[in-house]
Amino acid sequence: MIRKESLSFTAQSAGRVDKVSTEIPRSVFSYPSCTIYVNDRVVKKSFRVSAGDIVTVTWSEEVFEGLEGEDIPLDILYEDDSILVINKPCGMVVHPGAGNWSGTLVNALLYRYGEDFATSEDEEVNLMRPGIVHRLDKDTSGVMVIAKTADAHRNLAGQFASHTTEKIYIAIAKGYFEKKRGTVDKNIVRNPSDRKSFITCDDVRKGKSAVTHYTVLRQSLHYAFLRIRIETGRTHQIRVHMKSINHPLLGDDIYSNRDRNFPSIRLCLHALSLSFAHPVSGQRMTFYAPMPERIRTVLKQILA
Q1: 184, 246, 260, 295 from 94: Cα distances, Å
Q2: Which end of the chain is more exposed for a tag (fewer CB within 10 A), N or C?
């Protein structure tokens, strides 16, 4: 269950918004789901407030009480006492939600590590939470890092929040690209007409900032094979940004129509590599997940 939290207060002194708050734990400001409003304007945690400013902070917390572990095989790329790095398959939901209460990555982690892994020792948080630091959509495959300790979770969450990680994806998009390189820098907001999807927004005061860089590696008349680097990690970011420039991803059942040439293909988006500093040693590490067969199959056909 995802528990939505929201708290408002009046700043009593000037300073960084994440430091003037006495009501909200500092760790909350590093949550990927955290959104900060100052006088109804979305700001970063480094924003400096003035005394009297009205601050509202919203965030989500995963509460997984009562879940059972399931013996689900994981494709493990690396593991030590602090972290687990996996190659998540296409079709696996990361954590339970409506209609997906079993067969998820969280169920697999609970089975593998037991209840100790699910219980946070952080008194500031005080809730049941497996060590999910970041997410991949159900049909997006590829590299994911999972924290095995509370300290590792806090450290990695901070790295993702401060955008010091590097995430590289490969994808197949529809249409012909006139330019081989490009950047999409558009805020993303929830679609008011469909709460399960998102859209881009030109008003920088709304939504969340999102930056996506893409490079065309190969292309045919109707499809392109892309290398994508994202600076931020918003929900559906790549899918929304590519649709916004009229190049939706192949196999995307939310942001694109079914393709007549590949009517049964799953989403052609794969997290190829992930780089971050190890939460204990500080060593910079990079992990790769091999190109999945579904993308290889499409490439053979479109580039033949």
Answers
A1: 26, 28, 29, 21
A2: C
Q: Kindly tell me if the per-residue pLDDT of 6 is higher than 60.
A: yes
Helix (H) or strand (E) holding 134: none
Residue-wise pLDDT for 24-55, tens only, equals 777 788 777 788 999 988 888 889 999 999 99
- Does 3.40.50.200 match the CATH number of domain 168-271+295-302? no
Q: Fill in the DSSP letter of residue 282.
A: -
Look at the domain 2-62 and name its fold: 3.10.290
Q: Which amino acid is at 157?
A: A
Alpha-carbon distances of 134 from 145, 156, 285, 290, 293, rounded to whole Å: 8, 9, 16, 20, 24
SS (H, E, C) 25-76: CHHHHHCCCCEEEECCEEECCCCEECCCCEEEEEEEEECCCCCCCCCCCCCE
Q: Which of 18, 53, 137, 252 is catalytic?
A: 137
* Domain(s) of CATH 3.10.290.10: residues in the chain: 2-62
Q: Is-catalytic flag, 137?
A: yes
Reported as a single tens digit per residue, the pLDDT across 133-166 is 888 999 999 999 999 988 888 889 889 888 899 9
